[in-house]
Amino acid sequence: MPAPPSTLVTDAEFILDYGVYAEGNTMSRVKGSGFCKALRTESELYRALLRDPRCPGSSRRLLASAVAYALSPVDLIPDWIPVLGILDDIIIVPLLVWLAMRRIPPELVSEYRTSGTLSGTEAE
User: Fold this and answer.
1) Is the pTM of this model over 0.70?
2) pLDDT digits over 67-108, tens only?
3) DSSP per position, 33-94
4) What is the pLDDT of residues 20-47, one digit of tens each?
5) Rg over CA atoms, the chain
6) What are the residue ranges spanned by the domains of the chain?
7) Engineering a disulfide at 123: which of 26, 80, 109, 116 sits with its beta carbon 3.0 to 4.6 angstroms away?
């Protein structure tokens, strides 16, 4: 496992880059590091779709809203409320992404998935 970078990075960036998470004071490998790779690939796909002018405007707004909601410290239900605070993030973000992906032409999505430009994908 590579050593953690000396510069300050967020936990999410570290998990995506190295497939590990902090457990107390020790670093443990994530069992399904394939999940980390898939998460990174999907986030790169969404970033590429946000920049593509062929992507419908409504889908871009929905994807941007999902990213903003996931990263925003302001939630509909505050995170300090047990279970409900996290539950709204678990429901709202995937729902926004699902609605956005339904509106994007499948050819556009498959073009990015097969092009090999996303990490973890191979050109066919």
Assistant:
1) no
2) 999 888 888 888 888 888 888 888 999 999 999 999 999 999
3) HHHHHHHHHHHHHHHHHHH-TTS-HHHHHHHHHHHHHHH-S--SS-TTSTTHHHHHHHHHHH
4) 444 444 444 545 568 888 888 888 999 9
5) 17
6) 42-115
7) 116
